[in-house]
Amino acid sequence: MSDIAIKVEDLGKLYRLGEVGTGTISHDLNRWIAKIRGKEDPFAKVGESNDRTSKGESDYVWALKNLDFEVKKGEVLGIIGRNGAGKSTLLKLLSKVTQPTTGNIKVNGRIASLLEVGTGFHPEMTGRENIFLNGAIMGMTKREIKSKFDEIVDFAGVERYVDTPVKRYSSGMYVRLAFAVAAHLEPEILIVDEVLAVGDAEFQKKCLGKMKDVSVNDGRTVLFVSHNMAAVKSLCTRCLVMEHGKMKLNAEVEQAVSYYLSGDSDIMNKRTFESVSTDVFNLKEISFNNVGQNIDEPLTENSSIELHTKLVINSNQPDRYHITYHLYNEMGEAMFSFSHIPYINLQKGVNHLLCTFPASFFQSGQYYLSLFVVEDRRQAILIEKDIVSFTIVDGGRDIGVYMGREPGYIKPQFKWIID
Asked: What angle do CA 364, 367, 369 make, to 5 degrees?
């Protein structure tokens, strides 16, 4: 295991649903008897997979089950998946915040974890005191921490507040100091959850650059959980894709991101329909793809993007109807609306509408499309909010040049002249 930083074998975590301490004495007794007899947990047999969208029949759920993987020293491993897939549970097990139900974890080196805002900080202590506290927890001497102190404070940008109790920090300041401590106190393994999203764009850029630096230059291992596919692609070399507590894919980052964007997740580039219809209108399919690419490939920002809408009009007066689209960002903010009017009119029967967005029009990110069928340009006879979502990934920017995304969500092209 000389070149392996983390080795996970048959890892599983079982949780009981409902209120803690209600009707569990007999359960605990049965589990204790099974344990001293060296037998399997009897309730592990009835535990269900972690699908938060369905009710299920059992009071026990596997937040993680049957995970096997290795992480090499100096590797940057991305962990991606929809909310509730088990990503944070996995990081808590690796960080020894909680114990696994099954399997084991072998770790070669010290771990520094940044799992949520304020992790490892005492709110009544100052920033200075928390730096020394965290260093001591990681097994560093006072002299070692002192040698890194100025660098930590400078990176976090909280020099003015370093002697203020951290309970008075904003969530962004918390994250700034926590990441600076975790990254600069020289752990062999750095574990970072989605908590970086709390920071501003400038600090996210600094953090991503720092993680790349400690991996490439210092040979440290990084585990990175994020919903930002642009950051994942630029930082990671390999990814685990999690679904319902299980590992669905362990692959190179390009393949993993492509699977995630086109697979069984909240993020998809295509939807087909059975029941979205009225007496005169029947929607069949909406999909997105880069020009010349398949629908199941991820959308990149530096290529033209096609929106396909397939529908059927049953009316003998199809020109009375048109479709309007509303586009929203991941914050639910309206971006703009658009329509095929006045360019083309709908026809009776099957219509296949094609709208092309120019290359480099969108920033990387997740977007939601709503659809309205309008009659006589006055009344919406069908409204479908967030009918399809799509994610656009970074077009391949160089982390050494610029890692963050530009402000805003679209990048319109203007005509420039020198007068």
From this structure: 150
